[in-house]
Amino acid sequence: MNKGKFGPYGGQFVPETLMPALAELEAAYEAVKTDPDFQAEFNHLLKTYVGRPTPLTYAGRLTRFLGGAKIYLKREDLAHTGAHKINNALGQTLLAKRMGKQRIIAETGAGQHGVGTATACALLGLECVVYMGEVDMARQQPNVFRMRLLGTEVRPVSSGSRTLKDAINEAIRDWVTNVRNTHYLLGSVLGPHPYPTMVRDFQSVIGYEARAQILEVEGRLPDFLIACVGGGSNAMGLFHAFLDDKKVDMLGVEAGGSGIETGKHAARFAPPPADGGTGVAARLGVLHGTKSFVLQTPDGQIAETHSISAGLDYPSVGPEHAWLRDLERAGYTYALDDEALAAVKVLSEQEGIIPALESAHAVAEVIKRAPRMPKDAIIVVNLSGRGDKDLDTIMRELAP
Ligand SMILES: *Cc1c(COP(=O)(O)O)cnc(C)c1O
After folding, report:
1. Catalytic residues
2. pLDDT tens-digit profile of 65-119?
3. How far away, in angstroms, is 62 Cα from ligand 1 center?
4. In this structure, which residue's CA is closest to atom 14 in ligand 1?
5. What 3-state DSSP class applies to 291?
6. What is the 133 CA–ligand 1 centroid distance (Å)?
7. pLDDT of 139
8. At what angle do helices 205-218 and 195-203 cross, to 10 degrees?
9. Ligand 1 pocket: which residues have CB below 6 Å?
10. Given the CA of residue 359, which atom of ligand 1 is nearest to it?
């Protein structure tokens, strides 16, 4: 089974009953890729509804503050709903409509993907059900309310740890039962083929825009791309258009949480501490229908991950990232909770932009790296979302 493999990663690991649905989805996706009507409709919505192209902003004060490379921000925080997730949600909802599906299901942890999905379904008039663990619902009240306001049914999941993992299980159960009229809308470059490829393609508009924009203002390509990596969709969205530009370095930033040695993190690519730490380590495994690095406990259970940013708090990572890392085409590092918080403050004060805590992980890496780079070097950092959703956390953590 070589379908949708990125080297040894990816593939399709799902119950037999879902194989026809994946085949149907793959065929439909292959068809719309080259269908000018679909592409025109998608691009029209990206332009008139999402507000694309999003700007590429030169961060002049931050650049002078850090005293090294020139820093440009790709402004996904200015997309409708305040993050990049809407690009993929709209693409998949349009595709589902084409396939004659009347119903969309999704699962959400922090609620950001749920809100993106609910938004796309409201716009395109499809029924929408979002599964969410009860613990997450309590933690993310405003997003639960947003989804309901958008006409989506939020179904509480009370099994297991009542968080994202359990919501995924319930969503897959629903899909198996209702596969004829239902599309499962996955929110990142995860899951069985064709999702990692399809989600990347729907997000690749980020990098294609950034590439044209930097060529226009600088007359050359950037030296460095930096993006945060949860499942990995905003990073793949930025990286994809530059993969053949061998001189452009790429760096993904994972959530280092409280520190790798504490076991409380979501840095799937970080080397384990020398003394083994708590025993939590990433090993090759299957989660959510795809093979990739998965953070596990010593006895092979999926580890409880931690990050101050809900969007990076996931035990696995998109299979294409694992492959790009093997190929040494992209590098991966992590930023700690505290470093991300400090980066929120720096970007807010230097540029008047309050970033999402996820995006702040990428900014934290810029703060470390830019001063060590020559002044004529260029960094493009993906600002995947705005920080309004995180204000409570930021206020609590930065309180004097
Ligand atoms: C969900 C989210 C992320 C993480 O998801 P990726 O698939 O890794 O992009 C990053 N930033 C923001 C603002 C998010 O909402």
Report:
1. 85, 107, 384
2. 999 999 999 999 999 999 999 999 999 999 999 999 999 999 998 899 999 999 9
3. 23
4. 311
5. strand
6. 19
7. 82
8. 30
9. 83, 85, 112, 188, 228-234, 311-312, 356, 358-359, 384-385
10. 11
Phi, psi (deg, nearest 5) at residue 16: -50, -35
Nearest alpha carbon to residue 367 among 61, 65, 60, 72: 65
34-43 contact pairs (CB < 8 A, 24+): 38/94, 38/95, 38/98, 41/94, 42/90, 42/91, 42/94
pLDDT tens-digit readout, 143-152: 999 999 999 9
Alpha-carbon span 323 to 318, nearest angstrom: 9
Strand partners, 281: 296
Give 2's pLDDT tier (boundaries 50, 70, 90). low
Instruction: Enter the tokens of residue 364.
Output: 């934290």
Counting from 1 in the atom list of ligand 1, the atom nearest the Cα of 188 is: 7
Q: How many Å lie between the centroid of ligand 1 and the Cα of residue 238? A: 12
Q: Rounded CA gap, 174 and 226, in Å? A: 37
CA distance 105 to 9: 26
Whether this prediction's pTM lies above 0.70 is answered by: yes
Which residue owns the Cα nearest ligand 1 atom 13?
385
DSSP of 178-194, one letter per residue?
A: HTTTEEE---SS-SSTT
